[in-house]
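Researcher: I'm preparing a figure for a lab meeting and need a structural model of a single chain. I don't have an experimental structure, so a prediction will have to do for now. The sequence is pasted below. Please return the structure as tokens so I can convert it later.
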Amino acid sequence: MTKRVLFTVVGVLVALAGLAAFLVLQGLDEADKWSSVLSLFFTVAGFALALAGFVTRGPAQSADHAVTGGSLRQVRNVAGDVVITSGGGGTGTPPAAAPAEGQGSGTQSAHGARTAGDLHQIDGVGGAVRIEPPTPDSAS
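Model: Understood. Here is the structure written out token by token.
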């Protein structure tokens, strides 16, 4: 555990203990009123954080620590069709294909993945996606 995580955990525990002590000292009726007000603020803060996380999530792709026996392809935000040919053929898109606005909304991750074959991560394609099997002459 890093120092930052440890300090965060200790800080949260101290804050919760302080809040609990404050509410105990207030008495049952006043503590109920305080908890209602605090619940409102925590709900609004949680909603704002969730909305900010949803809005600011970028189109990041990650293939960290991925080991494949074949190839790994990550495709995101393509306006046209995507053709993936297994066996070394590569990924083909039409020459006019451009990033599609508003498509794809998260991250793609293959963190810690180990595959014995191909791994395809495809998101936000405005056209058709076709994954072709290897041809006899490309299997050499």
